[in-house]
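Reopening this one. Same input as before:
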Amino acid sequence: MSIKLQSVYKNRIMFTHCKPKELPNLQTISNDKGRYYILPSGNVAASVTTITGYAKKSSIAEWRNRVGEEEANRISRVAAGRGTRMHKLCEDYLENDSKYSMKAMPDALSFFKQIKPFVDKIDNIHYMENALYSEKYRIAGRVDCIAEYDGVLSVIDFKTSMKEKKKSYIDNYFEQTTAYSLMYEELLGLTIDQIVIIMAVESGNPQVFIESASNWKDSLINTINNYYEQENINIPDRKS
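Same output, byte for byte:
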C-alpha cells in the first residue's frame, strides 16, 4: 500500500494514479430501451445499468404508480442531476484538482463532505469513468473508480440517496460493481474481488457497503441472461 503525500496546497491529500493499460473509448447508442455500447469487435452490448435497471422494472413501476407520474419524474430528475454533480466532484477530487470544491454546486459539496473520509481511503487509482466491456457476458459500461480501498484493489461506486438503504434493497448496486470486476478481469487478466459502495445520504448518515464480487457473480449472470432472453428486448445494430 502506498503512502499518500500531503500537498502544499492546504495540506490536501494527493492520490496516485497508475493506469495499467489504455482501453478504447466505446461509442454508445441510446434509445427508449436504454443505453448500448459498440464493442471493438463490432458487437453491441447493453450497458450494465440498463440490464440491472430492467431487473428492477416492476418495482420502479409500482413506485411511479404510488407517487404519481409527475412527482416520479421530478424526483428522478433531481436524483439524476444530484448524482451526476457529486460524481463529477469525486472525480475532480481524486484527479488532484486543487479547485475541486470551487467548481461544485452546494448540494454536491454537501454530499461530498459526508463521504470524504471514505473517499480518502482510496489510492493507487487504475481507472475512473473509463469504459469497460465484456465480449463473454455481452455487457459494457463506465466504471466510477477502480483503485485500492484501504489497501485492497476494489471496484468502487459512488451513490447518492434520499434516505439510508438496507443492503437487501441494493442488490442491483452489487451486481453493477461485480460486472465491472468481471470486465476488468477479462480485459486485464487480473481478479478484483472486493466491491465497495460509498453512499451519501440526504436524510441520514453516509453508508459504505463492502462485499465480495464472487458472492454476486451468479446473481449477475442470471440477471444478464434474463435480460437478453426477454422477447421485447431489441438490441440495436451498430448502424442505428
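So the earlier flakiness isn't reproducible anymore. For the record, The beta strands are 27-31, 34-38, 44-47, 122-134, 139-149, 152-161, 194-201, 207-212.
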